[in-house]
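> forwarded from #structure-qc
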């Protein structure tokens, strides 16, 4: 449920007055206590809802000196989304420099990596991925599965790698950043600030100039398909050569960028944009101002579907997709989604569990084999045994074009149980999506 002031006004307070009517109006003090409790509850719910809203923040810094040229709520805590992959890449470049990895090295793909939500390269468990290909997958496609491949190679598991990421953040001076995964997929505990990512951007330039040019790649070919860089501002802003975009519902549209003019390099971070276009326009205006150029009035430009953007297909799913959802010929409207809900490929209908309200379920991934799906269900059940004790395990084969995947689910729950289960699984690092009875293929 989305909590708003209207919800409180039309839902909670009428509830209090109905309680008074049931009591025959005999106890004013009881009414006062009821209203006090309702007011306290509504305040807590509203505070929680507001805390989940994307926070708009920005900062522009001189890359060489660290001088702050502009800042707006630069220390507001928010979610990094795919900017997270900058730290994954920073640690990858560290490993390349000290010989723990090589660019041509083939890394194994696990079932955990395969199960990641889009955007991704579509890696299959048991296959391998070259380190350089993984780097390009993160830079251009923002591939979540490739991020996990790197994380497992360097940390043994994504959880341990996230601990390494947080330690490195502290070493660099990122005091308000906490990492829980390598990709930026939704996790309420994974937080940062615009200032912290300006620190990481400068560190990337200073510590890894040899590898920084990867961020300038406009596209690369994988599996016979050209994959374009999500940072479309590089194609129109003079001197911009990176760095990374990001988007989730909780974070809004984020961008860490760097540009050079007349021998001077600036680093900028914009967090919580309402759209990819307004985010890019904001960055452009702030960089122009910092470089001493006239403001061209694009800071808060309207959301416009250009011919190029309208012709592209809609994103695969809302995992951590850096592009806005675009339907052919028009802009599509994205519906608000609870933060804990991590999208996966479209789900098959869930059979009703028998009684009303028990048609809900959860999906923990889509896999290339039935065995991998069953293994994921077993692992998920161990993390939330109480919540999932009565759920039925199902692995369903679904065709996607010429290929087929196996969707791993637990069904026979009500909505509250499904969402609580996903919240618990996400907290423990599992991917989970609550599935309603109305979800279709």
């Amino acid at each position: 449920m989305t909590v708003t002031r209207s919800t409180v006004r039309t839902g909670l307070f009428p509830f209090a007055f109905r309680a008074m009517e049931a009591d025959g109006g005999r106890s004013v003090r009881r009414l006062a206590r009821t209203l006090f409790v309702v007011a306290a509850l509504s305040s807590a719910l509203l505070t929680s809802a507001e805390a989940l809203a994307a926070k708009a923040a920005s900062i522009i810094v001189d890359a060489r000196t660290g001088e702050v040229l502009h800042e707006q709520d630069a220390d507001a805590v928010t979610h990094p989304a795919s900017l997270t992959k900058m730290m994954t890449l920073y640690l990858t470049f560290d490993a390349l420099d000290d010989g723990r990895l090589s660019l041509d090295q083939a890394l194994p793909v696990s079932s955990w990596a395969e199960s990641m939500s889009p955007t991704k390269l579509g890696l299959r468990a048991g296959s391998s991925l070259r380190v350089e290909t993984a780097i390009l997958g993160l830079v251009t496609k923002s591939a979540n599965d490739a991020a996990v491949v790197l994380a497992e190679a360097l940390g043994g598991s994504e959880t341990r790698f996230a601990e390494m990421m947080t330690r490195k953040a502290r070493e660099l001076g990122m005091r308000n950043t906490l990492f829980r995964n390598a990709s930026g997929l939704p996790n309420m505990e994974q937080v940062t600030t615009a200032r912290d990512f300006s620190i990481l951007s400068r560190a990337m330039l200073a510590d890894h100039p040899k590898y920084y040019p990867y961020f300038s790649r406009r596209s690369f070919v994988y599996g016979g398909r050209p994959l374009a860089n999500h940072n479309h501002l590089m194609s129109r802003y003079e001197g911009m050569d990176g760095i990374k975009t990001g988007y989730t519902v909780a974070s809004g549209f984020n961008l860490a960028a760097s540009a050079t003019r007349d021998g001077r390099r600036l680093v900028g971070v914009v967090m919580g944009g309402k759209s990819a276009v307004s985010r890019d326009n904001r960055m452009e205006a702030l960089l122009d101002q910092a470089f001493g150029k006239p403001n061209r009035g694009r800071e808060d430009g309207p959301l416009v579907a250009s011919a190029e953007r309208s012709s592209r297909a809609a994103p695969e799913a809302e995992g951590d997709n850096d592009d806005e959802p675009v339907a052919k010929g028009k802009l599509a409207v994205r519906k608000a989604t609870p933060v804990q809900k991590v999208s996966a490929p479209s789900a098959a209908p869930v059979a009703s569990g028998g009684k009303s309200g028990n048609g809900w379920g959860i999906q923990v991934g889509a896999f290339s084999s039935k065995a991998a799906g069953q293994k994921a269900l077993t692992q998920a059940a161990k993390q939330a045994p109480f919540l999932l004790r009565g759920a039925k395990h199902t692995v369903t084969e679904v065709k996607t074009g010429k290929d087929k995947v196996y969707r791993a689910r637990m069904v026979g729950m009500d909505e509250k149980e499904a969402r609580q289960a996903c919240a618990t699984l996400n907290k423990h690092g599992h991917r989970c999506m609550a599935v309603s009875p109305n979800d279709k293929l």
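QC bot note: Residues 208 and 217 are 16 Å apart (CA to CA). The first strand starts at residue 57 and ends at 62.
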